[in-house]
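Recap for those who missed Tuesday's class. We walked through two folding examples back to back. For each one, the amino acid string is listed first and its predicted C-alpha cells come directly after. Nothing is annotated here on purpose, so try labeling regions yourself before you check the end of the notes.
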Amino acid sequence: MRQLEASDESDLLGFSPALENRIDAVEVLPPDDTRGLVDFNYKKQLTRLTATPPSFPEPTAVISGLDISISYRSRKGKRKNLVIEITDFPGEWLIDLAMIGMDFSTWNRWQCSLWETRRNGEEFAEFSKRLFALNLEDQHAVERIRDDYRRLLMTTRESEQGALLQPGQLCTKGHVVDVFPMACAELIDENPSALSEWLEQAFSHYVEGTVKPFFERYLSSIDRQVVLVDVQQVLTTSQTKLDETSEALSLILGKFDYTDDHSWFNWLRPEIDKTCFYATKADRVLPEDHLALRKILQRVARDAMRFSKSHGAAVVIDAIGAISTTTSGRTSDGEMLEGTDKNGKLQAYQNPSLLVDDELCFELNQSFVAPEFVPIMNAGIPLHIRLDSVLEQLVADWME
C-alpha cells in the first residue's frame, strides 16, 4: 500500500502503470460500509514502520479491511479509477474450509490420525480419555475440557506448526469461539452415544454458523487469490510439515470457484481467474537462494497449482519480500546479509543452503536461527523484493 501511495518515489520498475507514469493518485480508505469490516487502520500500521526504531505491525487477530482507490490513465489516455478491496484475517482460519462437506465422523478420524503423529500425541490420547468420560451435565467440567482442548491445539500448532489441525479459529489469541468441535480418539470405534451426538452438534454448529458464513461473506467473491507460504519455516521442521502444508493448500483452494475468463466482464460473476503463490521473507536468504525458494514453493504447492490450472485459473509463482530487513553485500567471507537489530546493532550472517543436489536441507535449517532485524525504510518507504512484480501480476491488466 505504501509502495502504491508513493509510486512516483518507490522502486516499482516492474509495475507497468508506475513505470509509464500513468498513476495520478492513490488513496487508502476505510472499507466500504457494505462490507461490514473493521478498519485495518493503515495509518497506525504505517506509524510502526516509520518509528525510530521501526517495527513490524502486530499479527492479524481480527477480520479487517481497507479499500485502495487508484486514479490512473489508461494506455489510451483515458482517466479511470480502480478500487481494490482488501480483506485481512488470520491465516489459520483458512484450514477450517476443509470442514465444509465433511461429517463429524470423517473429520474426527482425520484429526485423530494427525494427532497420532504429533510429539504430544500421548497428551491428546489422555485428553480423549477425559473427554470420553465427560459428564455433559457438569457445565464447569465442559468449560474446562474446552479450555484444555484449546490450549493443546494452540500449543501444538505453535511448536510443531500443525497446518491441518482444527479448528483453526481457536488458534488466534483473543478471538472467542463459543461452540466448536473437539476430536476424540475414544469415539472412533464406538457406537453412537450422548457424547458423540453432542460433538456432532458442535461440529455442525461450527461449520454452519462460523465456517460457512466466513467463507460466503469474505471469500466467495474474490477475483484474485494470493497464497503466501513461509518456505523457510517449513524447512525448520520436517518433511511431514511440508506434506501437511501442501495438503492444506490443496484443501483450501478446493473450496473456491475458478474461471478462465480474464476479462472485465468476469466482475459481473466473481470467480478466481488468477492464483499467485509467493514464498515470503525472501530478504532472509541470500539472493542466490531465491531460485531455491521458488523451487521449494513449487513442491509445497504442486497439487494446489495443478488444481488451479485445471480449473482455468492462471498461476504465478515467485519469491518476495514485502518489507525487507536486510541488504546483501560481498565480504572476505563471501556474500552476506546485513541488517540492524532493535538495539541499533549492525549484524551480518549467511543462511544455510536450502537445497543441495535438489534435496531439501531440513537438518541444516532446523538448527539455524536467523537474527531478528528491523524493517529497512527509505524516506518512509519500505525496502522490498519484487513487490513491483506482485503488483504487475495482480492488477496491471486491470489498469490497461
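Example two. Treat it independently of the first, because the proteins are unrelated.
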Amino acid sequence: MSDVIASVEAAEDVRPVERPADLLDEQLIGQLVDRARAGGLQLTGEGGLLQQLTKRVLESALEGEITDHLGYEKHDPAGAGSGNSRNGVWVKTVLTDVGPVEIEVPRDREGSFEPQIVKKRQRRLTGVDEMVLSLSARGLTHGDISAHLAEVYGASVSKSTISTITDKVMDGMAEWQNRPLDSVYPVVFIDCIHVKVRDGQVANRPIYVALAVTVDGTRDILGLWAGDGGEGAKYWLQVLTEIRNRGVADVCMVVCDGLKGLPDAIGTVWPQAITQTCVVHLMRASFRYAARQDWAKISRALKPIYTAPTADAAEERFLEFQEEWGGKYPAIVRLWEVGFILPVLFRSWGLCA
C-alpha cells in the first residue's frame, strides 16, 4: 500500500512536455492499478484502492483549507506568533460512494476552523444522500435501503438515518410547494399526468401540474398535486384556488386540455383569463373523429391554422380546412372552431380582457 501512496505523491513531480493530459491520466491510473494488484490490494471494497485514494484526496483538501484559514503552510516559521496555529487532528469516519472512509481532520487552537469539504458533524458525503433518495424513489423501503448499502458498500446506515435523509427532502418539498408566487403570469399551462405511486400498494394516480411563463419569459413550475381517481374539474378548482391564494391575482391566458368543466373552473378563479385549448390535445381529439388512413392528411391540413402569423390568416386557413374536410368530418371542424378559432378571434377583436 505504501508503494501505491508513494506513486500518488510522485505523480505531482511528473512534468511531461509533449504528452497530452488525457494520456498522462491513463498512464497514471494504469500505474496505480498495476501496483495495487501487484501488492495484493483490491480496487474496491473495504481498504481497497478507491477508499485509500478517497482518504488521501479528502485529507489533502482539508489540509489546504486549514492552510488558507491560518494563512501559512504547515511547519512554516511565518506562523510563529500569529496567534493561531494547528492543533493536531481528530479522526472521523464518513460514508462515501465507495464505502466508509476514516479521515484525519485538522484542528486549530482557537477552534475557529470550519472545514467545507467535510463539514463539522457531517458523516455522509452528498453522493450518499442522493443514492438514498434515488433508491427511495424506486420504491425501496428504509430497511431495503439499509440492507443494500450494507451489502454493496459495507456501510452501516440505520433506518432512522435514512428516514432523516428522506424527511429533509420532504421538508424542502413542502417549503417549495407553499412558496409565494408572482402576482401576474402571462401564460399558465395546466395538465394532468398519471403515474404509478407506491402507497401501501402500487396504483395509478393523477398528478396535477401547473407550469407558468413569467413576465421575464422564464418558466416556473407552480406546483405538483397528487389526486385520487381520475382527472376532474372539481379538483382543478381546488388547485387553481390554492395558486390564487399564494399570490397569483391574475393570469392572462390558461392553456389546458378539453376537460369538461375546466373552463368554468378557470373563470371562477380568474374571471378575465382567456382559456385556450392546447394544440396537442386538439390534435389528439381530432384523430378520434377521423379514420386512421386520414390522420397524416388532417395533420398537414391543420398545421397552417395553428402556425398562422395572425388571427385573420388563421381564420382563412380554417375556412380552407372546413371546405376540404367539413363534409367528411364535421365534428373536427366544430372542435377547432370552439377550441381554437373563436378564442383567437375574440382576442383579436378585443372581446377578451
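Answers for example two:
Strands lie at 86-96, 99-108, 184-199, 201-213, 219-226, 250-256, 274-277.
The longest strand covers residues 184-199.
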